[in-house]
Amino acid sequence: MSSGVLHLIPTTLGEGAPVSAVLTPELLALTAGLDYFIAENARSARAFLKKVGEVCPLHKPIRDIEICELHVDTPATALPGLLAPLLAGRDAGLVSEAGCPAIADPGANLVRLAHEHGVMVRPHTGPSSLLLAVMASGLNGQSFAFNGYLPTDPVARARRISEFEQRSRAERQTQLFIETPYRNEALFEALLKSCAPDTRLCLAIDMSLPGEQVSTRAIGQWRKLAASALPVLRKRPAVFLILA
User: Fold this and answer.
1) Is the separation of the CB atoms in 102 and 19 below 8 Å?
2) Beta-sheet strands, E only, within the chain
3) For the chain, how long is the longest CA-to-CA vector?
4) Over the stretch 136-155, which tens digit does the pLDDT of each residue have?
């Protein structure tokens, strides 16, 4: 028996984006036909499937669709069990909390295991806040690196920012970071404090959502702005990009 296909299915980047606006009709139909999903959060996955079902009827009721969780605390020993249905010939959809699965997402571990077992992996087109941010930033799109989350300790965070700024200057490489939305302001303030005045900083906020906002300025220019002129960062998904 041949194995099933692991479909990497992007989701919307937030509540304000309808699935029909960011996912193709073909992908919506494929998603509606699956009955096994691996998701970072089962509740979020059900909400996503409900949205899909509103524009493309699901082949099964949501209660009959199997959803298994794969998150940062999932032990490696649980991955074979998640892959087992595919090895038995069943197709599956891998979904993240937001955007593209397996990018800044624990689903990458399952994708690696799928390759090791010869399971076909099919990525599908959808929104990625990281790529959208690079596209809109005006910074170097030929060479860029995503560095995930920075340390929360102020001293360690400042040290890492300086290291990434030095790398950016030496390699002319755009450096990307993300943060938990309630800590966005702390990261923004740390970047303003640690980076050189001529280093450019882009804030890419609410990508693909109704409140989307992208602003790129030199650090020195950001420092001169009045507080009332700064973008609101708290509780909004954001990508931070620098180019020294």
Assistant:
1) no
2) 5-8, 36-39, 66-69, 92-95, 120-123, 144-146, 174-178, 200-205, 213-218, 238-243
3) 65
4) 999 999 999 999 999 999 99
Rounded Cα distance between 45 and 50, Å, is: 9
pTM metric for this prediction: 0.88
CATH tag, 5-123: 3.40.1010.10
N-term to C-term CA, the chain: 54
Contact 182, 167 (CB under 8 A): no
pLDDT digits (tens, 9 = 90+) for 165-194: 999 999 999 999 999 999 999 999 999 999
Helices 107-116 and 79-87 pack at an angle, to 10 degrees, of 50
Give the list of residues 6+ apart from residue 145 with CB closer than 8 angstroms, or none: 167, 173, 174, 175, 176
8 A C-beta contact, residue 210 and residue 180: no
Domain 129-243, CATH among 3.90.320.10, 3.70.10.10, 3.30.950.10, 3.30.1490.20: 3.30.950.10
Q: What is the domain partition of the chain in residue ranges?
A: 5-123, 129-243
